[in-house]
Fold:
Amino acid sequence: QVQLVESGGGLVQPGGSLRLSCAASGIIFSINAMGWYRPAPGKQRELVAAITSGGSTNYADSVKGRFTISRDNAKNTVYLQMNSLKPEDTAVYSCYADVRVVGGTRRYWGQGTQVTVSS
Structure:
């Protein structure tokens, strides 16, 4: 069984920064993509940022230039550095990991961490 544990959420003023972490543990041979989602108006959720095992990244237009995703493959951990935060960034951020299993991959999810941007 694989578990993802998130940390780093909290309350921050507009313009501030937060760093989220998501660590995967359990029987893991390798992980393909890792990333973060959050709820979005009119959508079930939006992909905030993703990173492949090789380091290729993808960002939502709304966070480009402000958020940076990175990962430590040796620690099976993904990070989301969030700068210049805006009130509209307020959400529960959920991380995921696409873990390689026999026959393919399986997506695992973290429990979610609350980010609140408010003065």
Summary: The chain is about 0% helix and 60% strand. The two ends are 40 Å apart (CA to CA). The chain has a mean pLDDT of 95. The longest strand covers residues 91-101.
